[in-house]
Design the sequence.
């Protein structure tokens, strides 16, 4: 069985969707651990209710990013994951960490990458007057939110949108998007090679 470790920082609705997809067979794998950088992450409770191992590595307890990343890497490795999934994990990871999991680490980001890497993506889309916004699942590479894209969803931006209504519309698409993209990875359809994502025979 394909082993999946999920990193979260908050609510964990994407993690929950992935767990449910594993339970109902939409993803051919099993979430073996959910790890957060804060004990305030609401998603930890859901994981515990599913009898999934949980852990917290509190980033505020470390002197610098490298020490935090080293501890997190050791912990993640102890669960022997085939895939490491960033589902609302709000810490930047160092190149050493990313390279250790290169090709088997994916992230969901709430924008149509390469537009709006980083924070406040919905505010940026509204400020730019975009008529379309969305979410992206991509392989993680050392450059923030710049790894090769596996799949995207698009939603309209409405004239009446606020940051909150737009974020909600995007989030509604994220759960199916992440489930679909992760199954592409687990099944070997989506592969990372030489900085690109290969989907079946196509190169993206
Ligand atoms: C999601 O919208 C996800 O795309 C975003 O955080 C939210 C987490 O929600 N991720 C990022 O912004 C990563 N840079 P969730 O905790 O309910 O899954």
Sequence:
């Amino acid at each position: 069985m394909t082993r999946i470790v999920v990193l979260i920082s908050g609510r964990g609705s994407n993690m929950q969707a992935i767990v449910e997809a594993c339970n109902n067979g939409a993803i051919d794998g099993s979430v073996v651990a959910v790890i957060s950088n804060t004990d305030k992450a609401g998603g930890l409770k859901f994981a515990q209710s599913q009898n999934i191992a949980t852990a917290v590595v509190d980033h505020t307890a470390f002197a610098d990013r490298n020490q935090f990343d080293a501890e997190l890497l050791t912990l993640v490795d102890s669960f022997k994951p085939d895939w490491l999934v960033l589902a609302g994990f709000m810490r930047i990871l160092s190149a050493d960490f990313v390279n250790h999991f290169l090709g088997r680490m994916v992230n969901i980001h709430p924008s149509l990458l390469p537009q709006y890497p980083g924070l406040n993506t919905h505010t940026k889309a509204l400020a730019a007057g975009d008529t379309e916004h969305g979410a992206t699942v991509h392989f993680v590479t050392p450059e923030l939110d710049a790894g090769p894209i596996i799949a995207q969803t698009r939603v309209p931006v409405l004239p009446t949108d606020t940051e909150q209504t737009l974020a909600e519309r995007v989030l509604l698409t994220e759960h199916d998007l992440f489930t679909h993209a992760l199954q592409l990875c687990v099944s070997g359809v989506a592969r990372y090679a030489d900085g690109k994502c290969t989907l079946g025979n196509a190169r993206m």
Summary: Helices lie at 13-24, 43-49, 65-78, 95-100, 121-127, 163-186. The radius of gyration is 16 Å. The CA atoms of residues 50 and 168 lie 25 Å apart. The beta strands are 2-8, 29-36, 53-56, 83-86, 105-109, 132-139, 149-156, 190-193, 196-199, 202-203.
